[in-house]
Design brief:
256 residues; alpha/beta; Carbamate kinase; 2 domains; 8-stranded mixed sheet; 10 helices; 10 strands; 18% strand; globular; binds glutamic acid
């Protein structure tokens, strides 16, 4: 299987913005094992701004663009350093790709991206992708990594996109406030009803919330890729997903 896995900042870092070492170590171990089983994996990782905030000892996620971009530049190094180190322990080679929306808007750039990805996967490398936050301004910003992950999944013709998040799927209501909220296991049609279930966004570092996840689901399911929203709290969940067990919320592609 070719799987694109997106991890959000809330999965990778503590509330302080510093790295959640135990979680990230486990994530890298499980992803390495999935690759050892023969799966092709692409990782879309957030966390650049969050980790930059931690490393620069800022009190909270910056609001102004230059500070955000500076934090991303610092944090992206830290992020890749961490992945390089941890995946090397399991003899896997990471490759960094930073994208902006312009890379998908022009055919030539999109082709280049697709060719590079194909070659990296052939070579057995693990592409780690993020938005190029340090240069992305209003006109070229994708803005959230759920959408970025969906665009990547479509461009590499992935079988599956997995969004690891601080929530384990789509609920009928907000599970933090409504005791009757039920997890929806399967979605076959992303209609107005489903879209209306997206509440507000979660932690202070996260960008998207549920609405961007549902939009991502729409993008990929229309182009032949299934998507799963699952909790990133325990990365072992990826084994269950690879084993085709029922986990989180699965959005079924409507073109198969
Ligand atoms: N690209 C941003 C970062 O790495 C995160 C965007 C997102 O989490 O959706 O910090």
């Amino acid at each position: 299987m070719r799987i694109v896995i997106k991890v959000g900042t809330s999965t990778l870092t503590h509330q302080t913005g510093s790295l959640n070492i135990r979680r990230v170590e486990k994530l890298c171990k499980v992803i390495s094992d999935l690759k050892n089983m023969g799966n092709e994996i692409v990782l879309v990782s957030s966390g650049a701004i969050g980790m930059g905030v931690g490393k620069l000892a800022l009190n909270e996620k910056p609001r102004d663009i230059p500070t955000k971009q500076a934090a991303a530049a610092v944090g992206q190094c830290e992020l890749m350093y961490t992945y390089d180190k941890l995946f090397s322990e399991y003899h896997h080679t990471v490759a960094q790709i930073l994208l902006t929306s312009a890379d998908f808007d022009f055919d030539e750039r999109q082709n280049n991206f697709q060719n590079t990805m194909a070659r990296l996967l052939e070579l057995g490398a693990l592409p780690v992708i993020n938005e190029n936050d340090s240069v992305a301004t209003d006109e070229i910003v994708i803005g959230d990594n759920d959408t970025l992950a969906a665009m990547v999944a479509v461009n590499v013709s992935a079988n599956l996109l997995v969004l690891l998040s601080d929530i384990n799927g789509l609920y009928t209501a907000d599970p933090h406030t409504d005791p009757n909220a039920r997890l929806i296991h399967k979605v076959t049609n992303i209609d107005e009803n489903i879209l209306s279930l997206a509440g507000d966004k979660g932690s202070k570092f996260s960008t998207g919330g549920m609405i961007t996840k549902l939009r991502a689901a729409k993008i990929v399911t229309e182009r032949g890729t299934d998507m799963i929203i699952a909790s990133g709290e325990d990365p072992d969940v990826l084994y269950d997903i690879a084993d085709n067990m029922e986990v989180g919320t699965r959005f079924y592609s409507n073109t198969k």
